[in-house]
Design a protein that fits this description.
Helix content: 25-40%
Strand content: 15-25%
Largest sheet: 8 strands, parallel, barrel
Distance between the termini: 73 Å
Radius of gyration: 28 Å
Strand order of the largest sheet: 3-4-9-15-16-17-18-24
Amino acid sequence: MRELSASDGFLESDTLAGDDEQAETAAAEHTGEPEITYDEQFYPARPKALRPIARRRQYLATRPSFEFDGRNHAYVEWLRNQAMLGDANTLARQLSGQASMWQNSYAHPNPRAAVERAPVWFTAYPLSFITRPGESFLAALGDPAMWDAFREIGIRAIHTGPVKLAGGISGWTQTPSVDGHFDRISMAIDPVFGTEDEFRRMCEVATDHGGTIIDDIVPGHTGKGADFRLAEMNFRDYPGIYHMVDIPEDDWHLLPDVPDGQDSVNLSPESEQALQKAGYIIGRLQRVIFYEPGVKETNWSATRPVVDTTGKTRRWVYLHYFKAGQPSINWLDPTFAGMRLVVGDALHSLVDLGTGALRLDANGFLGVEKSAEEQPGWSEGHPLSEAANQLIGSMIRKVGGFSFQELNLTIDDIKATSEAGPDLSYDFITRPAYHYALVTADTELLRLALRLSMEIGVDQASLVHALQNHDELTYELMHFASGHRDEMFELHGVELTGAELAEQVQQTMRDRLTGENAPYNAVFTTNGIACTSVSFIMAALGIREQDAITPEQEAQVRDVHILLAMYNALQPGVFALSGWDLAGITALDRGSVAELTAQGDTRWINRGAHDIMGNSPEATASSSGMPRARSLYGPLPDQLQDPNSFARRLQRVLAVREEHGIATGTLLDVPDVSHRGLLVMVTRLGSGALEVTVLNFSDQDVAGSIQSSHLLPGSTVQDLFTGEAIGHVDDLCSFFLELPAFQGTALLLTEAGTPEEDEGVSFQNAP
């Protein structure tokens, strides 16, 4: 019987040593089998038939080794002591069999319960958060004074961003993160951000203020930490964490050489094709995220030669759908090691640290499969991703938390994953469309996106509607560019395929938001535009020099920023914003982050350091070294003293949203409009009343009729910001409204006893 070990708190199969070659040769001679079979000749990567061998011979090095490989027992044990899989196994054993695991329903997502619990989020980014001298990021997020300000504004949750150890391990040394700490290598808090005690204290302060802390897990990949190094050494279950294939030495000629000083090398398309033809990998996938000529041309890399615990030298090819330092997790390996690792990480955050929710990063790429001949491998919208997301979301709900996914796929796929997986999804459906509406002063694409979402069955209340986050302004428009690329759509009076529509929108955004028109912004690969909310608004307004902005232009930027906040907040779902939004941060000069952008990741220009509480006015950088960016709005304590500041105006929007339950309403209609710059959203509130959000995305004052078949003739139209009745719905299910440039409003419709003639109203009370 195969020996089992419980030293990690969970049974793991021992390393299997090499085959008994003499016994196998004798068996072959006895049965008359040929030395090489047909399958072995034409499909060298096809696995050999499993044999019921009772015990395989172990090979142990005969002398001590100080190499960073499997021969060095001390090094292997050092890696095991910090591996995530080992921690996950230990945690699982502690929770298994406990009554607490059965106290919450978990089968179905509950987006409205999640929204009620945390309707407005502050999305923090650890590397860019300026604290008091000597204060950690986590201690700053647990500051009661900041939570007092948040509660006054209407913010009910903090999404911390990734704060656990990330990057990789080279020898005995930890290497830095390659993707903003989304390449996790441990369940331990990174000391650069604080301690576990400070994390728990932050959760306590949030609870005291009626708030929630939202943490991150990454189901799609890890960094090259202890788990990956043990996988390279073929140690126990660790290779099963990843999509990695052991390439026999006879075929190493198919692999590129690894440059000196590196531990892996990206496969060229030619090498990828050769390995696919040989049967080792499934080849090219649907897209290459972070594609960079000469740097990342495929989703596969080859490792350097590594000596495993039996003394055998191996080379692997591994999948990384993102960067080379982010090996992808295998959700359908027979050991289910990757699944155990991810679920353990989630439980650690919720049960041990005390968070209330988790963001699932890169959770749309959890299944890869060979496709038909000459076609890319199936890697997006795969049923395995849906199954894995259901498992993760269910486990989180089972311990009393909720989850959201940041999944940039087609609307159909977002709908499918939301049926049984995470409770909420990031709004990649309308986010690029509302940006395009501002750039063009035309809401047609935005109305199209909202209507498609409703037709497909995505509940707006299940979406996280956001201003800026740490990423670029994404404009991939996957619904049009990928899943419905050949379907016909109409935009600006022209019939276009989905692919043509996406390209037209993307080119318009590139032309208007970068280059000569806005040299402070930058294109980020094929994904979108690297910019802050403020630098995006500046570009849309035609401001070419962000350092020479005038007070009048600053006021207009603030007006537009509030307009975009109203779009996201005055509809069902979560509203999220960042410190870059609250402080009005501009883009960094590229020269100040040249080292970070050297490999083509231009997003660092939109991640400037900011001090939202004004605790360190003299600081020129965050404690992580991110340069301080310019703030147009100033710190929150100063803004809360000014009734016309961004924070105070935002507070009025969020008060209306909360008082009338807009966040948990149901979007009924996105009607046609009388002016192309207008957007109208009709929402059924929990009380049964109708709320109508009207926004003007143009620089012109607009006067016209607001019409929808859902509007009941005779209903009173009330301005929710002033409380005044401003008119009635006429027999054509419409009412008249005047709206200044870049302004918006929220209106409540209630049935009136005696309809009065509507003389029209001029809206003068924007927040």
